[in-house]
Design a protein that fits this description.
Number of strands of chain B: 8
Number of helices of chain B: 10
Distance between the termini of chain A: 66 Å
Number of helices of chain A: 8
CATH topology of the largest domain in chain B: Cytidine Deaminase, domain 2
Subcellular location (chain A): Cytoplasm
Largest sheet of chain B: 6 strands, mixed
Shape of chain A: extended
Radius of gyration of chain A: 28 Å
Number of domains of chain B: 2
Shape of chain B: elongated
Structural class of chain B: alpha/beta
Radius of gyration of chain B: 28 Å
Strand content of chain A: 15-25%
Largest sheet of chain A: 7 strands, mixed, barrel
Distance between the termini of chain B: 46 Å
Protein name (chain A): Eukaryotic translation initiation factor 3 subunit F
Oligomer: heterodimer
Largest interface: A-B, 89 and 101 residues
Strand order of the largest sheet of chain A: 2-4-3-7-8-9-10
Structural class of chain A: alpha/beta
Strand order of the largest sheet of chain B: 3-1-4-5-6-7
Family (chain A): Belongs to the eIF-3 subunit F family.
Pfam family, one (chain A): MitMem_reg
CATH architecture of the largest domain in chain B: 3-Layer(aba) Sandwich
Order of helices and strands of chain B: HEEEHEHEHEHHEEHHHH
CATH class of the largest domain in chain B: Alpha Beta
Main location (chain A): cytoplasm
Order of helices and strands of chain A: HEEHEEEEHEHEEEHEHHH
Amino acid sequence: MATPAAPASASAATPAPAAAPAAAPPSVPVPSPTPASAPAPSPAPAPVPAPTPAPASSSDAAAAAATTTAPGPTSASAPAPAQTPAQSLPGPALPGPFPGGRVVRLHPVILASIVDSYERRNEGAARVIGTLLGTVDKHSVEVTNCFSVPHNESEDEVAVDMEFAKNMYELHKKVSPNELILGWYATGHDITEHSVLIHEYYSREAPNPIHLTVDTSLQNGRMSIKAYVSTLMGVPGRTMGVMFTPLTVKYAYYDTERIGVDLIMKTCFSPNRVIGLSSDLQQVGGASARIQDALSTVLQYAEDVLSGKVSADNTVGRFLMSLVNQVPKIVPDDFETMLNSNINDLLMVTYLANLTQSQIALNEKLVNL
Amino acid sequence: MTSRKARTSASGHSRFSFFLSVWKDGVPQGRHRLRRRFFQLHHRPGGERQKQRRVRRFGRETSADRWLVQYQMEMMRSLRHVNIDHLHVGWYQSTYYGSFVTRALLDSQFSYQHAIEESVVLIYDPIKTAQGSLSLKAYRLTPKLMEVCKEKDFSPEALKKGNITFEHMFEEVPIVIKNSHLINVLMWELEKKSAVADKHELLSLASSNHLGKNLQLLMDRVDEMSQDIVKYNTYMRNTSKQQQQKHQYQQRRQQENMQRQSRGEPPLPEEDLSKLFKPPQPPARMDSLLIAGQINTYCQNIKEFTAQNLGKLFMAQALQEYNN
């Protein structure tokens, strides 16, 4: 892990949770977040070396500094003030300069967990919250796991069982030691005042926590999924408020995950939301049906262009060209021989497999005589 | 999450580890229609199963086992707090090219099934899944095998009595996926937003590597099987030889006795035949049953695979014909 002294690699997103900040220069954390002005992809190199160690040390300072707000990791409740609370800490870990906004890459498992825990919530609870776990990268934050945390919320107070959260995190760490606490999630449409408090609790656990909302109440007819990070706002020197700035959410999949997702998406089309796992040849049939659909769309497009309904687009044309050229042009005789030898191989293997099976059945019979 | 776990360590080719996890479940429905949840290949099914993970290597010492049990207990307790179904229903395991019929699996599944009637083991094959279609199978031990395991008696006579063949060791339970409405909404949302390009691995023709590996494993098993058969044959030969020797000895004895009688001498005492001729040890039958079961699984996998490939080859042929 690069020490914070190498700012180019350790961008604001990745202060090492335990180690390196000690080596960071004990500079005063710069309170004003520099807005994302640098060009998007490359990490901000030399121009901003000063603030990048700052988040590392500020998280250290935030963790080490005596918290003046409600202490105690166990369920803490605090009256939610009418306005945004005064942050007398030197700010929860500052966002620092991340060019173009950080990207949050979600795995679909997270969303499934969130919806599942929402479906299992206690009576009377309007929303559920939980912790997000994952890994941090140079530009993006990849959320790969989560667990829900019991909490109580009423008009004027919020109680979160932090002890539970800590325990669960320890348990999870035993199984996958690479995961860090990245932030927290909540269901529901808006960000409430309680969110600010909860966010502050989480900022003690993780530097720069992310807040994810999943709208299970389906406002606007959609389940909107948004991610935020908190930034300070206000007049420096006076009461500082907290503002949640949105982040881009992208979805990341492992290959095998994607296959699972594809399978499960099929329940959308069945009447009672039930599907079974299909057998081998059916799968090939299904895949080829999908390709057929895709091809018919393409054909439709081509015909529309020819008849003039749709204007021709060169890039699409190029793609079509490469598509058609992907079918390899092989001399028919060669192809015949290739095809036949492959088919022969497969048939031979099938025959051998059947033979082996009958052999062992025979052996079984003989032994049992 | 199974996929995640299996990916991070079963890069599939050199080694593999087992991920045992516990499933917690509410009451499973009658004919073992186990509901599973949405791609929480972590298996947190909508209302039915839940899982926690732990990494486990077979052959570890008991202190590690104790740690695991503790982990399990704590996890279950915590999950109960958040209203997640926390009853045990079984465990899952990842497998390398389908080689999961081992003694260890049998033992674990037996202990689970003994404690909880309806427990199952889910076998997840990450390599096959990476080839295009989710490969997840659920197995239970047949009642016959359960009885034999209960007696802990794996001798040939007991197995013959139980009339167990390799086909009757495991029974497969069909898996059904069921989602809730809210999850369906989520799926539509994901479909819109996350247009991941479909890679179409299912239709790839370049999968002979997989077949090669499978065949390799099959060959190894067949070798083991043949060794086993040789052992059995020698045993049979030894027993029959011994029988003959016994018979000869008895006859000689009788002849001697008759001669002695004719000469008027006292007959020789009857010796205990069983002490003279110790019967040879019958070879363990359980291992060969397991091997046979494993060979059976391999063969079935191979057949499925070849069926798919034949289909794909014919499709390729159709494309080529059209081209010409």
